[in-house]
Structure formats: C-alpha cells, structure tokens
Design a protein that fits this description.
Blueprint: H1 2-16, H2 22-31, E1 50-59, H3 63-74, E2 79-82, H4 90-93, H5 109-114, H6 123-136, E3 140-142, E4 146-152, E5 158-165, E6 168-179, H7 181-184, E7 196-197
Parallel strand pairs: 1-2, 1-6, 2-3, 6-7
Antiparallel strand pairs: 4-5, 5-6
C-alpha cells in the first residue's frame, strides 16, 4: 500500500510539474519522441497469425455479402465471411431501411425470405435469417472484424487479407477476395488489382 501511495505521489508531482527528478525527466523524454505529423512512421516487422486458409474470403455483412458467401459454398469452395458490425444485415439494419420501395421487387432467395411477410421486415428477422443462412451453408464467419490490409503472394497477386478485431490482427489466406474495395482497403487507398469488387446494397 505504501508503494502504491508513493507511486501516486510521484505521478501527481510529475503531472503537476513540481518534481525535478532527472531520472523521471529523462524517462519522459525517451518515451515521448517528436513525431512529424506530416511524415509517415515506420511500422516494425511482425508476424501475424493465420486464422483461416480458404478458397474465398467475403468482406462485408450485407445481404449481398451473405448471398455471395452462400453461393460460393454451393459451388464447392471453402468460404470465410468477415463483417465489420457485431451483426449481419448492416445495409438494412444499420440504416433502418426495413421496407421495399413501391417499385422494388425482391430479387434473390434471401431477399424474398426477408420480405416474405410483406413489404417490411424487422432487424431481428434480418439478423437471424442471415446468420441461419451462413450456418446452414456451413460458412465460417467472424463479426466485428475490420479489414486493414491485402496480402500479396510472391508474384504480386492478392492472396488474402489482414483483419483487426478485439483479439488483435490476424490473416486470412484466400485465393479469391470478394467485397467492396473500400471495405477491403479500409477506404485508405486505390483499388487493388486482382480483388473482385461487388457493389452490393
């Protein structure tokens, strides 16, 4: 307890600027390097664990993303879907656009099921139905994951993605990347050659 109180007193003194201990001042200088905001910083080399190795990785949690993942599995490929939100169906639930416009006709099996009861649906139904579709098709999926980088092989072709979530950064190795490029690149760069772009809604 005495050590804790002494540590708190030192921290308080340093914050208040009343302590003239050179060791503390030196440590503060070492841990607070000057960084030019207009220059890039170098990231240290690191190893990123591979969480999955699949044929196709689908980036996104919309109805179109889920439909693409299910269709890919039906064509005999192994698939992993990653969604940025903690739920699926963000294009409907996230925007609260839970109805069909007067001129809209449900296209695709999933959309027809979502609006089977009429021209409106509910967030709970959307989330449950999309998760059920992935589970029934045996599609692996992760929620609350953000794509941060594209992996490239030795020939410069896309070979998967790096994701970030509460567990840190992980890699998904894949032969094909399907998704909106702004989702794959985190809206940080130009389109990536070799990444299939689907502008689903």
């Amino acid at each position: 307890m005495k050590t804790l109180i002494a540590t708190l007193e030192i921290i308080t003194a340093v914050v208040a600027g009343t302590m003239a201990d050179t060791r503390v001042a030196s440590a503060a200088r070492i841990t607070s390097p000057r960084i030019n905001q207009h220059q890039p910083v170098r990231q240290s080399a690191r190893q990123i664990p591979i969480v999955r190795q699949v044929d196709v990785v689908v980036v996104g949690g919309s109805v179109g993303a889920v439909a693409s993942a299910v269709a890919a599995v039906e064509n005999g490929t192994s698939v992993m879907l990653i969604a940025p939100r903690p739920y699926l169906g963000d294009n409907l639930c996230g925007t609260l656009h839970l109805w069909l416009e007067a001129s809209e006709i449900p296209a695709g099996d999933l959309t027809r099921k979502l609006f089977a009861a009429g021209r409106t649906t509910t967030p709970l139904l959307v989330k449950k139905m999309l998760e059920t579709a992935l589970l029934k098709a045996d599609v692996d999926f992760l929620l609350s994951c953000y794509p941060t980088d594209v992996l490239f092989d030795d020939t410069g072709q896309p070979a998967g993605i790096v994701i970030a979530n509460r567990a840190g950064r992980q890699a998904i190795v894949a032969k094909v990347i399907i998704g909106q490029v702004k989702e794959v690149r985190g809206q940080r760069g130009p389109e990536v050659k070799g990444v299939r772009t689907l502008y689903w809604t």
